[in-house]
Amino acid sequence: MNQSDQKSEAILDAALPVFVRHGFRKTSMTDIARAAGMSRAALYLSFSSKEELFRAGSARAHARAMRKVEAALAGDGDVFSRIEMAIAAFQRELIAPFAGSGDAAELFETNMALSRDVTLAARAELVALLAQALTNALATGAITLDALHATPVDVAAIIIAAMEGIKDAQVAGHDLLEDTRLFLRLLRKALSR
Hints:
Helix content is 79%, strand content 0%. The chain contains eight helices and no strands. The protein starts with a helix and ends with a helix. Residues 5-65 form the HTH tetR-type domain. This is TetR family transcriptional regulator. Residues 28-47 bind DNA.
C-alpha cells in the first residue's frame, strides 16, 4: 500500500466514529480533519467532499465484508454454521459499527443515496454466495428444499430480505444478534432433513 493509500485509509478510519457520533448531515469536513489529525486543506487533497469520503468508506466496508463472507462460507462446519458465520461477518462489518448511533437510520439512508450501486452489488454477491452454499448442501443431501418448493436462490434472497428487516428492527431498538440467531434457527429447522 502506497503512502497516499495509507493516508486515505487513516482518514476513513478516523471518519467512521465521527459519522457515528454526529450523523452524516451534522458531520463537517472540519470534524473529520480534526479526528484524522490533519488540516481541512490536507483532507481536501484526499477527498473533495464529505459525500466522496462517505462513499469511499462504504466501498471499503462492503469490500471487506464480502471478503469475510467468502472466507466464512469456505470454512469448516455444516452449511448452517457457515451461513451463520457469513451473516455475522456481514453484519459486523456493515451494520454493527452504527449500532451506537442515534443517527443510524440517517446513515443507512445516506449510504443508499450515495452508494446504492456498491450496496446492491454486495447484496447480489451475497445472494449468489449463499445460493451456492445452499446448492452444494442440497447436492450432498445435507438440506432439503422439498417442503418449501423453493430454489437455493429463492432461499438466499429471503435470507437477505430477513437480514434487512432485522437491521431495521435493530435501529428501532431490537437486538441484532439475538434476532439474527432466531432467524437462523428457523432456517435450520425449515431446511434440515
